[in-house]
């Protein structure tokens, strides 16, 4: 089993690299790793540190429950809407 895993880890990068370019069409992609980037010329990929600011979203209404699974922000005309999934954990 360990030998099969070792071989898979050695072969996987070769298989991925051998597939050629990934066609993303016209969709936008967030470049947080090198998966979709062949090379950077005259540019660099840099992650910025977070900056603590005021609290933007508070979940303290009784109907929101004890947890929140995710947030979705949607640009709707001139308005930004945020949706989230609350849950009643432990009930």
Shape: elongated
Structural class: alpha+beta
Across the major sheet, the strand order is 1-2
- Radius of gyration equals 21 Å
Helix count from the secondary structure assignment:
1
Helix content: 10-25%
Unreliable sequence segments? none
Give the strand tally: 2
Mean pLDDT: 77
Fraction of residues in β-strands: 15-25%
Largest sheet: 2 strands, antiparallel
The span between the termini is 42 Å
What is the N-to-C order of secondary-structure elements (H for helix, E for strand)? Answer: HEE
- Number of structurally distinct domains: 1
Written account of the structure:
This protein has 91 residues and is of the alpha+beta class. Helices cover 18% and strands 21% of the residues. It has 1 helix and 2 strands, in the order H-E-E. It has a two-stranded antiparallel sheet. A hairpin with a 2-residue loop joins strand 1 and strand 2 (79-87). The two termini are 42 Å apart.
